[in-house]
Amino acid sequence: MVRGPLNMGYGVEVTLERDTVGWGGREYGFAKIKGNTGPYDNIWMDWTRDGGRTWLQCGPFQVGGYNLSKTSAAKYTSSDANYQFRACGSVAYNHVVICTTWW
User: What does the domain layout of the chain look like in residue ranges?
Assistant: First the structure.
């Protein structure tokens, strides 16, 4: 499942995604940046357990070159409505941070 894409400008998109990973079949959330990326573009994921009042930031993770995709660290999901994620990114052209809504 994918939330987004979030248009960062300059042909770069950020998505918040979830997928089943590994042998245990557990679902994880992660952020992804792709498109016309550059080596100094960044992606990260924020994670909250209180509906977005406070959060932890996983990253930033820098894209290593041109036109490459990059994902953040992943965190397992939960059915608790206060346990949420959002994807955030910035592009080197303007360093403006843009985040998805909490999910």
Answer: 2-99
Residue-wise pLDDT for 76-95, tens only, equals 888 899 999 999 999 988 88
Query: Given strand 42-48, what is the order of strands in its sheet?
Result: 56-62, 42-48, 84-90, 97-99
Neighbour tally for 14: CB within 10 Å: 29
3-state secondary structure of 80: coil
What CATH fold (topology level) applies to the domain 2-99? Immunoglobulin-like (2.60.40)
Spatial distance between the Cα atoms of 45 and 3, rounded to a whole number of angstroms:
13
pLDDT at 2 over 70: no
Q: How far apart are CA 27 and CA 13, in angstroms?
A: 23
- 21 with 49: CB under 8 angstroms? no
- Interatomic CA distance for residues 19 and 45, integer angstroms: 15
